[in-house]
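debug: dumping io for the single-chain case to check the tokenizer round-trip. Nothing else runs in this session.
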Amino acid sequence: MTTSKTIAALLGPTLVATALMVFLNLDAMPGMMEGMSRIPMIIVLSGYAAFVPGLAIVYFHNQWSGGWPVLVTLFGWLSLVIGLIRMIFPVQLAGIMANAVPTLAAVLPVVGAVFLLVGGFLSFKAYGRE
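debug: decoded output
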């Protein structure tokens, strides 16, 4: 359980901070996403930024049973797969993103809410008393 709490202590606040960034910049997010779609190298770099921690989580914490730690594993795998896709297909993703910005912008509040809930839960599990 120590590894679960350690990773949750890092992942939880990161998800909460990401959710706050999304909510506090909802109006600017479509422009940021459109700008990102014009520079595929940013997509590659964001892929590395997702892939490396995802790989670390999967390597050190690939647990699929035992309650809430499964959430840590799930986010590790999601990060790894999303990072890998961004690294391998940046130009294709840029094209998709350019066309999908209005749809993606409409989904952002839901993504922010999910990140806030999961991040808050993981933070509680990591920093709360047993």
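debug: round-trip ok. The two ends are 11 Å apart (CA to CA).
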